[in-house]
Design a protein that fits this description.
By secondary structure, the chain is mostly beta strands. The chain has strands spanning about 35-40, 45-50, 55-60, 65, 70, 75-80, 95, 105-110, 115-120, 125-130, 135, 140, 145-150, 175-180, 185-190, 195-200. The strands form five sheets. Strands 7-13-10-9-8 form a five-stranded antiparallel β-sheet, with no helix packed on it. Strands 1-2-3-6 form a four-stranded antiparallel β-sheet, with no helix packed on it. The N and C termini lie far apart (about 40 Å).
Length: about 200
Amino acid sequence: GVPLDSGHLYTVAGTGVCGYSGDGGSAAHAQLWSPSAVTLDAGGDLLIADEGNSAVREVPAATGTFYGVAIGAGDIGTVAGQGIYSAYLADGLSATGAASAVNYPSGLAVDAAGDLFIADGYDRCIREVPAHDAVLFGRNVVADKMYTVAGLLTVSGSLPAGDGTRWVLTRVTYPDGVAVGSGGALYFADQGGNTVRRIAGS
């Protein structure tokens, strides 16, 4: 790559023009729409919450397949969502398929195993896209599929509920930031409920 000067500012993704384009090509020539969060995985791959496009996009450091999507080094690809506004539809299906969606994602985290967690703001839930077949939070999951780990019950303006219960009973009002803690615990800011919540690790 081109040497970068310490302390200088560089654009790594997006042209500065609002839109949704560029998958399969250079990230610097892609269009984003109101990106709201970024995170890096253990391999230095950049993940972007492309909030206005209702998608999660990835710019890898090295060519490979990420959550079922082949992306070249320095290129960009969509790894969750469809790039369109869409309500929550189904679990256990391809993270980029027609029956899976994220709706204005506002936070991202990746755990040590490479599993992706998404604060799915307008769907009022936390989603996960596992990197491998595994047991996460007491449930069998399949690599590259999308699952809901909190917020299955639709809530409108009510306080969060479900403390101490399984994820199927958890209510989330408007999740924002998300982070992975020790032991695989997942933390997220429930902005609409004025709380920070924790899901105990497996």
